[in-house]
Write a structure and sequence with these properties.
single chain; 6-stranded mixed β-barrel; 29% helix
């Protein structure tokens, strides 16, 4: 599309079954009851001048530009704050209104810089538009009086400036920070003429304040007061393309606004079903990695990791790779090869990689990053409910009365959804947090948890079983729901298990460290507080009992009847943008697309007929098994698309040993990541801005990814995989990802009604989309569970084998921070490093004092498998005996200390429980020095010789 600003109706839409008919400027208009006069006028094609009003915020009525006349009503009310009424007759353009509006506008302009021609918001400024709309031609008050024209500009934020001289104090930025984001970082300081927008305390600027740089204030600003640096540098966009964010699992929709082939800004799309026009610092601003100097654009090969990389043509790289793969297959067999799909790539790309492994390599040795994050979700929810995904759409939270957050940190990892959750909490919903760390949701502006159960890491199952004990023994179970929707015999077996006295909060308090009275109160609130929803993250799944915990959560939801309607459910907050989709596409070694087991002959026959090959009926190797087999000598070649297993997977020493033992490692990525240190082929990838396809977010919402610019490397990622398949002798001939999706829909029942054409028309669809659910499924299990009867599963608490002791007395748990994403490959190559330039270790004051540590000290973090060094941050966010860090920076490589312990059902690593010791250090560990030297040596590049 060309550059057309998004429509702004002035005030939010209203949902009401009752309609009202009125007359505006002689035209009859029918709108929902409660709609403002301003919005009603806009919906019928009118345009009432406004400055303080925007449809993402509640009406405010301060600018006095939107005045109207209403027959039978005294004065000139503000149209933004005046609701429609039956039979109302409104006039928006009269001589009286024209005079009033021009007078108001004169006051604004008399204290505003007259630099429109050189202003970065020229022709994209609501103040400029409003001045033209009211017919302003001169300013009777002059410009000589006291004014704010010399007010300073705050340039501290790396992405936007705050030019106070252009501020009209409309309060839109302040209200956006409150209503949309929920941070309350901005305020109006002073009164009258001295009123001004202030970020935090008097000594704060935007960077030092509590501002989280979500961009809501920038989007709301009607002038150039809050303006993006990129707009000032590049200029006004010329066109816009709607696409989907490639960061977390929320799946925000953006307008990528372009000038030629240059991206000017990413503006959250108001019609985005997941984000409703909101964004976070990553999706809104952190897209500069796409053009970063570190990006590799030419294919490279080498015979040995001791050699430097050699740039080659695409043809040579693909021929070399295919020949090596075919040779290894001929010598060692099909099961010596495997691949890893990417949760950052599209559904279509993940589907092609698993197809290449199965149909081209000839094995089922395919896995995805969900192995190390949400594979227990797939196992646990499929076992209990019958499908491997969450039950609700994000909007469902607005109907929740009780929200239980366990093992998740939404404000950092899923910030846009967290803002929606906080909005509901400010409206009165109750919050329970189960987390060893005091996350921001426990206590933040106008939000406070009713209960924070600060459990001992590794005791999730014990806490949930104790909650179930309270619910059943106190008669709080929803027996009618259970009899109707669940297997009654299995429920009785489970109820006998949880009511055993050994599962009471009092007995388990010694294990969980959660006071029994607090746990009982939380259980009662969850069971009796109304619609209760559970949201969980990697603090649930990344444990040796991850699958057990997911099933324990499902048990809790079923016993209280909290599945199958709005406001309730079990909701995994997925970490990466397409981790749900990569799982849906058949990226696990035991499942084809749609979570159908490879051993099922009928399912396998569908794919064999469509692909024209025979498929191995035996499940393949998981990522940890591939590495084990490589060390043993039976696994020889690996194709890794868009994942960095050397940095993200546990026990870095073992990962490195596995990669080093392989004959061929192919890395397909944007940058020479850590895994590429052990690679023999590097195939440059494309960013989400350079490709077409679809992502599926945490709420099962399938959305289009649209190409914004041509791939700098020459190919979209699906094209690279297809060219490799062709080089191996496979006759693939897809012309567009839409054709790949057509194949997916043909072979996958839950995607049967999905097509690119339909997504383009409707915006998004939530699977299953099929004959039974032609319009998709925002809420799952409405009339019954997918598996038939809900299955209660006994989940006995089994302590982890990872034990603390005199040598390693502390427990390490890991997580993410707002400004960084996953292994940091993207965000570390943006200005987001201003907030988080290195991983730090959070340690409780008591533990720090016992070791003579203060904030900023370099400390050695050691476990039984490895050690690293990083700086300490002394804080009471963590409990005594617990330390916490992130894994965003390869210089730290936090996973060098995490162990090989994993979930009993899925091999998901136990990142959240590692016994460690912390001690003073004076610099990098020997391992860090060796690692840096090896990485530097491995990344040497010999440029291709220029063609004659």
């Amino acid at each position: 599309m060309g550059y057309v600003p998004q429509d702004d109706f002035g005030t939010p839409s209203v949902q009401s079954a009752t309609t009202v008919t009125l007359t505006i400027d002689g035209r009859p208009v029918t709108v929902p009851e409660g709609t403002s006069v301003m919005r009603a006028a806009a919906e019928c094609g009118g345009a009432i001048p406004k400055l303080c009003a925007t449809d993402s915020l509640q009406s405010f009525g301060s600018c006095r530009l939107c005045l109207v006349e209403v027959e039978g009503m005294r004065g000139t009310p503000a149209s933004c704050t005046t609701p429609v009424a039956p039979g109302m007759v409104v006039h928006t353009q009269t001589p009286r209104l024209e005079k009033l509006r021009r007078g108001v506008m004169e006051l604004y302009i008399s204290d505003h810089p007259l630099d429109c021609l050189t202003c970065s918001a020229n022709n994209d400024c609501e103040l400029q538009d409003a001045a033209a709309q009211v017919g302003l031609r001169d300013v009777r008050y002059g410009y000589a009086g006291e004014n704010h024209l010399a007010a300073p500009t705050d340039v501290s934020n790396p992405y936007f400036d705050f030019d106070a001289s252009k501020c009209i104090v409309c309060s839109r930025c302040v209200r956006a920070c409150e209503e949309v984001q929920g941070t309350f970082a901005l305020t109006i300081d002073g009164r009258g003429f001295g009123s001004k927008v202030s970020a935090g305390q008097a000594t704060d600027d935007f960077l030092s304040s509590e501002c989280v740089s979500c961009g809501a204030c920038v989007a709301a600003c009607p002038t150039a007061t809050l303006n993006e640096k990129a707009v000032a540098e590049i200029g006004k966009p010329e066109r816009a393309v709607v696409t989907t964010c490639a960061y977390c699992g929320v799946g925000c929709t953006f307008r990528a606004e372009m000038k030629g082939e240059q991206l000017v800004r990413m503006v959250p799309w108001k019609d985005g079903k997941a984000n409703h026009g909101h964004s976070c610092v990553k999706g809104r601003f952190a897209w500069g990695y796409a053009n970063h100097q570190d990006r590799i654009l030419a294919p490279m090969i080498r015979e040995s990791i001791e050699e430097p990389w050699r740039e080659v043509s695409w043809g040579e790289a693909l021929r070399y790779t295919a020949d090596r793969l075919n040779a290894i297959k001929a010598q060692y067999g099909a099961r010596a090869l495997g691949g890893i799909t990417s949760s950052r790539c599209t559904n279509e790309e993940a589907y092609l990689v698993q197809k290449l492994v199965r149909a081209g390599f000839g094995s089922n040795n395919v896995d995805t990053c969900a192995r190390v994050c949400h594979s227990p979700t797939g196992y646990g929810l499929k076992t209990t409910f019958g499908t491997s995904a969450g039950t609700q759409d994000f909007d469902s939270v607005m109907d929740s009365d009780v929200i239980l957050v366990i093992g998740a940190n939404p404000t950092d990892a899923h910030p846009v959804f967290a803002s929606q959750m906080k909005r509901r909490l400010r409206q009165g919903a109750k919050l329970i947090v189960i987390d060893p760390r005091r996350i921001d949701l426990v206590r933040s502006p106008h939000v406070q948890a009713e209960h924070h159960l600060a459990l001992q890491p590794g005791t999730n199952v014990a806490v949930l079983t104790a909650m179930a004990h309270v619910i059943v023994t106190e008669g709080l179970a929803d027996e009618a729901y259970i009899r109707e929707r669940c297997d009654w015999d299995e429920y009785q077996d489970w109820a006998r298990f949880v009511t055993d006295e050994r599962h009471s909060p009092e007995v388990l308090q010694a294990v969980t460290r959660v006071p029994a009275a607090d746990l009982r109160a939380a259980a009662r609130l969850y069971a009796t507080g109304g619609n209760a929803a559970i949201y969980y993250g990697l603090g649930v799944t990344e444990h040796s009992q991850g699958s057990s915990t997911v099933m324990a959560i499902a048990n809790l939801a079923m016993v209280t009847g909290n599945v199958g309607r709005r406001g309730v459910g079990v909701n995994p907050l997925r970490g990466q943008n397409n981790v749900q989709g990569s799982c849906d596409m058949g990226s696990f070694p035991h499942e084809l697309s749609g979570y159908r087991h490879i051993s099922d002959g009928e399912t396998r026959a569908l794919f064999e007929a469509d692909w024209g090959v025979a498929l191995d009926p035996e499940p393949g190797l998981r990522i940890p098994n591939m590495l084990d087999a490589a060390v043993e000598g039976s696994f020889r070649a690996l194709y890794v698309q868009g994942e960095d297993i050397l940095q993200s997977d546990p026990n870095t020493h073992h990962v490195a040993a596995g990669l080093a033992a392989m004959d061929l490692v192919i890395v397909h990525d944007l940058f020479l990541n850590e895994t590429a240190n052990y690679a023999h082929v590097f195939l440059p990838g494309s960013t989400f801005l350079e490709k077409n396809g679809t992502f599926t977010n945490a709420e099962r919402r399938i959305q289009l990814v649209r190409k914004v610019m041509e791939p700098a490397n020459g190919y979209e990622d699906w094209e690279v995989t297809q060219e490799l398949a062709k080089a191996m002798g496979l006759g693939w001939d897809y012309a567009h990802p839409a054709e790949i999706m057509a194949e997916i829909a043909r072979l996958t029942p839950s995607f049967a009604g999905v097509s690119h054409e339909r997504l383009d028309r409707e915006g998004s669809l939530q699977w299953p989309v099929n004959e039974a659910h032609p319009d998709g499924s925002p809420i799952m299990h409405v009339d019954g569970f997918v598996r038939g009867k809900g299955k209660f599963v006994v989940t006995d608490y089994v302590p982890t084998d990872e034990k603390t002791g005199p040598r390693f007395p502390l427990l390490l748990t890991t997580g993410r921070i707002l400004s960084q994403y996953n292994v940091g490959a993207q965000t570390r190559r943006t200005a987001n490093t201003v907030w988080h330039e290195e991983d730090v270790l959070e340690i409780h004051p008591t533990d720090a004092e016992n070791r003579g540590l203060v904030t900023g000290d370099i400390v050695r973090l050691a476990s039984r498998v490895g050690d690293t060094t990083l700086r300490a941050l002394v804080t009471d966010r963590v409990a005594p005996g617990v330390v916490y860090t992130t894994f965003h920076h390869p210089d730290t490589q936090a996973n060098v200390v995490t162990t090989e312990y994993s979930d009993w059902a899925t091999n998901c690593p136990e990142y959240k429980v590692t016994a460690v010791q912390v001690s003073p250090s004076n610099g990098p560990s020997d391992w860090q020095k060796d690692y840096t030297a090896q990485a530097t040596h491995s990344r040497r590049i010999v440029a291709a010789e220029p063609a004659e």
